[in-house]
Amino acid sequence: GSLLTKDAGPRPLELIDVFKLFQIKYNRSYSTPAEYARRLAIFAHNLAQAQRLQEEDLGTAEFGETPFSDLTEEEFGQLYGHQRAPERIPNVVKKAGSEKWGES
Amino acid sequence: VPSTCDWRKATNIISSIKNQKNCRCCWAIAAADNIEALWRIKHRQFVEVSVQELLDCDRCGNGCKGGFVWDAYITVLNNSGLASKKDYPFQGHPNPNGCLAKKYKKVAWIQDFIMLSSNEQVIAGYLATHGPVTVTINMKLLQGYQKGVIKATHTSCDPQHVDHSVLLVGFGKGKEKEGIRSGTLFSQSRKPRRSVPYWILKNSWGAEWGEKGYFRLYRGNNSCGITKYPVTARVDRPVKRQPVSCPP
Predict the structure, then answer these.
(1) Subunit contact B20:A50, Cβ cutoff 8 A
(2) Which residue from A75, B138, B155, B200 has the least number of CB within 10 angstroms?
């Protein structure tokens, strides 16, 4: 009908467009076309993952594109987590200095 | 324990959001944020301490390769305090000349540090009466976090695998998402919205990330292992103690 011929407004952004905007926003460039393709795939995976988290989350959190959207979960953990194993947890609270205040 | 608490609302207590960049020093930033907040609460003095000193003077040598908040407190105790951020600024990588702690005047120091009980009610009580505390959480869900309260399960966010230290600055209650109660086709009704208790946490990924650098986690189910390592420095006002003596 006539409705179908009407302009449906702006079409949704393609993944590649979204990724281009991400690159501009966070100033990202990739050294080779292969690296670009890999990062685009990771980006797509992370957006899908964010959508799944959004649906599963029991709170009010919103998940989506962030500065870390082109990183794998492993890379994210390696870059921003602390990998050192907690083998040195102090079991005694350390007391500092003298009990007498005013001493140097 | 009050029903809500937000140290950000107190004037000049919480320092501005830091950015760890490509250095894995969340542990040093969380400790620095903790010391800055406590120093401001106890001494009413606006101090900004040197995160770089914590990295360069860490006994394990390379602070950008990770660590734990207690490493930072041990460094503060061993160096008898911390220099200012202005004198000894953050570079995002270890200083090739090593620890420069002796070069600069100390602007803040601590008496000791303690680990709180792994009980969310106890942590809330301490937070409300003493000041912000550091916690170490599983950061898995933060990769795609934008805003709101994360309510994780132990499956979606393993509370045993904690790998990111941040500063706990408050807690509160919000309204849960509006949902449709399942029923017959004609009798769908809206679920009553219950309140969602949450923690307010200060991250170290810049103010552009999350909720102006902060994020919120559900309070009450040990979300992402928040109760595993609640650690805080102790910064006390000098008080004269009466000497005690043992009766002869």
Answers:
(1) no
(2) B155
Nearest to B52 by CA among B112, B4, B98, B119: B98
- Name which of A23, A28, A67 is nearest B208 in CA terms: A67
Residues in chain A: 104
State how far the Cα of B9 lies from the Cα of B102, in Å rounded to an integer. 36
Burial label, A73 (beta-carbon count in 10 A; 0-12, 13-18, 19+): middle
Percent of chain A predicted with pLDDT > 70: 67
The answer to whether A89 contacts B66, with C-beta atoms less than 8 Å apart, is: no
If you count them, how many residues does chain B have?
248
Q: Is residue B186 predicted with pLDDT exceeding 80?
A: no
CB-based contacts of B23, cutoff 8 Å, min separation 6: B55, B63, B64, B92, B93
Cα B244 from Cα A98, distance rounded (Å): 15
CB of B37 closer than 8 Å to CB of B12: no
Name chain B contacts of A70, Cβ cutoff 8 Å: none
Given this model, what pLDDT does residue A89 score? Answer: 52
Question: Which positions of B are catalytic?
Answer: 26, 164, 203
